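the two lines:
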Amino acid sequence: MPIVLLKNVIKSYTRGKQRVEVLHKLDLTVESGEFLALMGPSGSGKTTLLNLIGGLDKPDMGEVTVAGERLDQLSGSALAHWRARHVGFVFQFYNLLPVLSAERNVEVPLLLTRLSRAQRRRNVAAALALVGLSDRASHKPAELSGGQQQRVAIARAIIADPTLLVCDEPTGDLDRENAEEILNLLQLLNQQHGKTVVMVTHDPRAAAHASRRLYVDKGTLSSEEARSAA
Amino acid sequence: MKYLGLIWAALRRKPARTLLTAFSIVTAFFLLGSLQGINAGIAQVEKLLDVPQLLVMSRVRMDAPLPLAQLARIRTVAGVTAVTPMNALVGLYKSPTNVMVVVGVDIGQMLKIAKDMKVAPEQLAAMQRTRTGVIVGETIMKERGWKVGDRIPLSALSINGIGGTKTDGTSNWVFDIVGTYTVPLADWATRIFANYDYINDALASGQNQVLGYYVGIADPARSAQISQAIDNLFANSSDQTRTQNIKDFMNSVLDQVGNINFLVNGIVGAVLFTLLFLTANTMSQSVRERINELAVLKTLGFTDARVQWLVLAEALVLSLAAAVVGLFLAGRALPWVTNSAALQSQGIGAMHVPPSVFGYGLGVAVLLALISGLPPARRARRLAIVTALSGR
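prediction for all of em together
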């Protein structure tokens, strides 16, 4: 059953006086439980595609259906509520709130729920334990290594138990060893916790952890096989 | 309440900036509380002085003495119910900085004039039979820790504006506390009343002179006519008088300072106007620095309205917390600052910041936060996630 369904999606940006079409009549289907890697050169439209899937942006034309909801038809606040329930985000530069400790960072998405403070604390502890950072719960981001910060970001992404994890170059700012740990963690979440993962990367070694790889180039998608054949 | 952590964290982001802004707000609200408290105190004085009581003083200048001989003639004016001569002994109590004022009156007449002053009958009798006796306001009794039977030694600086030397050649005066008096406004029982005759008879020079007369009248509506009638008695003498009801007298003193209400509102308005820009600048700067973080909050599911509210709440917390501190400090400082011997001798007790000023101050703080916080809050609301996260 597809969790992500994009049909005939067109997205363009205006840069100065120029209108640049980033995605051109793009179709995409991602099955529930899949680990999809989106690859491609810089400026190919990978992040734009990821933003559409994560409900951070809307297409100019076409349909974007994620977790059964037509995102292109939702209002801004409905989209915000949808994101809170269905998507976890992992960014290249972690995007943690610098003044909050690791546990308070992880707790932020739960502030939007009706959970009690005690329940929130329990869930945060469980998420930090899952990413192996229970002992660093009270540390601020500046006191953590890059790999640890990314693990906090993953704990934050999964804390509200979303169906979909959207990761934009999650290992782009990490060394090989830390990158491998993060990728293994994403794989664990995909395989053992049933999370669907859509990851943008231009690192083939990172992409190798995914169950499927697609290439974005000049606003269109192609599979590994199609690229090999070409 | 669950967002308080986020709000607090945002304020702690740049502690020095937050503290400096908070300090400015504290100072402004301290000023607002104090000045409005003084304003309210003056209004209280006017209300309290709205009594059928006249004050006769020299027309030449306020502290010029008048002859005691005028007393009998003032009594003859129609509508006058009681008259007491008044002299004022300014002296030092125990230390050179501890100034006290003792007002010499005919206590029996004084109680007929100032009807809200209450003295126990036996204490009044004790006062009338003890030449050195004093009736002390309850507030001063508590403040000084005195009790009936205590003795107050004073080193006189002046009596009625001239030297306070006694016939024995010294300036040392001793008074015995024989009773206390109360007034409806408890804090304002601040005067010390002695027997006029004791002070007058013991003076080496300037005997049979008064600083003024307190006059009781039956009909407050006739105070202007009675005042005129008293002044007419001495119009062609070398000791011309100026008679006013107490309220007018106090207003004329205050008028010398200027339109206090206008001054207070002007100063407070100017301070708050400046503060508005300062707080708005702080909030705008804070939001500018957190564009990425606000975008992350939106990414995580915070709606535009919620992010706007968070920024506004930051301004509210900062403004309200600092205003509470400022008003609290004003509430503590004002009674201390206004607790002066000069005011006490006029029966004016320490001024307080009334609850209405606290309410008004908090209202102003909310308004300040809304006006200064709204532009950055709207900017946060309009923030597009994709643009903000890409740093464009």
